Amino acid sequence: MAVLVTGGAGYIGSHTCVELLNAGVDVVIVDNFYNCKKSSIDRIKALTSRDFKWYECDIRDHEGMDAIFKKEKIDSVIHFAGLKAVGESVQKPLEYFDNNVNGTLVLLDVMRNNGCKKIVFSSSATVYGMNNVSPLTEDMQVGGVTNPYGRTKFMIECILQDLYVSDKEWSICLLRYFNPIGAHKSGTMGEDPNGIPNNLMPYITQVAIGKREQLGVFGNDYDTHDGTGVRDYIHVVDLALGHVKAVEKVDGENGLFIYNLGTGKGYSVLDVVKAFEKASGQTIPYQIMPRRAGDIATCYSDPSKALNELGWKAERDIEEMCEDSWRWQSQNPNGYPD
Ligand code: NAD
Ligand code: UFG
Q1: E-only strand ranges, the chain
Q2: Is 42 in contact with 72 (CB distance < 8 Å)?
Q3: Average pLDDT over the chain, rounded to an integer
Q4: DSSP class per residue in 145-202
Q5: 178 lines ligand 1 (CB under 6 A)
Q6: Is the CB of 243 under 6 A from ligand 1?
Q7: pTM exceeds cut of 0.70
Q8: Which of 13, 144, 217, 230 could bridge to 80 as Cys pair (CB 3.0-4.6 Å)?
Q9: What's the average model confidence in pLDDT over 154-174?
Q10: What is the chain's Cα-based Rg?
Q11: In whole angstroms, what is the distance from residue 93 CA to residue 196 CA?
């Protein structure tokens, strides 16, 4: 089985490629390297001792994508490629809709023209919006999203659902990720954000390594056990293993499947700071700041559908997530080499 992995050189994609290759699946990576370094490809090869094809191509390049499908025997696609910074999407909505939504339309058209109708899509818990109460289940109403990034995910979910209605030969899996953190156990692969990190864990690790002075905690007056925001952090390797199961699912039967990938447990910002300090032996200075626009108090999954239907559940706890994030950051203070 050969899986085309769009965005396969990025954070979640690279970890997923390692688990696919370890499971004996062949991969072909397509990435435009907008938000990653080519050296992540070498790390995937070194970790798995397996070779594979990779292409520098933008998913919006219809001809380029068609040529890849014509050259490689692709059975299914895992579609990670996309822009993902919530704040930036507010400043650059056209770029986000073009890259994420238009990019997906081009990909789907090329897939259909080449007779490949199996896709696993990287969606997000953000599609549950502001009003649903955690634990979040897949049957809850989605769409109350507050920023262009989240809207691209919601729109792509709608497009894929309409596609399935029009042609039942498709097999489509929407994976709604909660908050991926952590890194590969080897310390050779991890998250390598450009500039100032938007997300909590990369910010914490950069404080720990001395790149940033202190963490700003966005609000301590939420209705949570310590007033700071609660999220469902999931180890990126558990998330990657969820994709191996999802690919098997779309390979085995036609249908439209939706799964939360989370642990079902919520941790506050201060819980994560404490867990990280314990795992790393570093002190993380922090300051309470005003709330960040668009944030909600609490967001965590009910992951039981993925367990029942895919036989998947997250195994790695918050300590392991923190230890692995720290190993990656401390061994690669400047991220991947150029
Ligand atoms: P990432 O930026 O590390 O990976 C995305 C990859 O896609 C990058 O390597 C980038 O260069 C590539 N890419 C972007 N646009 C492309 C294009 N037009 N053509 C080809 N390649 C392109 O991000 P990630 O954290 O690994 O996220 C992967 C996916 O999961 C994204 O779709 C993201 O929206 C989604 N997601 C991420 C999170 C999270 O917290 N990390 C949460 C929910 C959903
Ligand atoms: N936080 C801080 N300080 C920081 C960064 C974050 O206090 O410097 C807090 C936030 O306010 C929030 C929590 O830490 O309470 C987690 O914030 P992240 O930015 O790490 O993650 P979000 O839950 O806001 O969003 C992430 C991804 C989205 C995705 C969503 C659900 O960034 O793309 O998870 O999957 F949609």
Answers
A1: 2-6, 26-31, 53-56, 76-79, 118-124, 171-177, 179-181, 215-218, 230-231, 233-235, 255-261, 267-268, 286-289, 298-299
A2: no
A3: 97
A4: --SHHHHHHHHHHHHHHHHHHH-TT-EEEEEEE-EEE---TTSS-----SSS--SHHH
A5: no
A6: no
A7: yes
A8: 13
A9: 98
A10: 19
A11: 20
Is the shortest distance between the CB of 229 and ligand 1 below 6 Å?
A: no
Contact 142, 128 (CB under 8 A): yes
Q: Whose CA is nearest to atom 6 of ligand 2?
A: 200
Do 17 and 44 form a contact (C-beta atoms < 8 A)? yes
Contacts of 137 (CB under 8 A, 6+ apart): 260, 302, 305
Residue 307: Cβ-neighbour burial (10 angstroms; 0-12, 13-18, 19+): middle
- Looking up tokens 């499908």 gives 69
Closest atom of ligand 2 to 149 CA is 33
- Which tokens belong to 268? 């506050």
Q: List the residue whose alpha carbon is closest to atom 19 of ligand 1.
A: 58
Q: Which residues surround ligand 2 with Cβ inside 6 Å?
A: 84, 86, 124-126, 177-179, 198-200, 203, 215-218, 229, 231, 269, 292, 295
Contact 19, 243 (CB under 8 A): yes
Token couple for 62: 């219809």
Question: How much is the pLDDT for 1?
Answer: 77
| Position 141, amino acid | Q
Q: Nearest ligand to the C-alpha of residue 100?
A: 1
Q: Which atom of ligand 1 is nearest the CA belonging to 58?
A: 19
Q: How far apart are alpha carbons 244 and 25 in whole angstroms?
A: 9
Quick: pLDDT tens for 120-141. 999 999 999 999 999 999 999 9
CA of 226 to the centre of ligand 1 (A): 32
Give the catalytic positions in this structure.
149
Side-chain-facing half-sphere of 40: CA atoms under 13 Å: 31
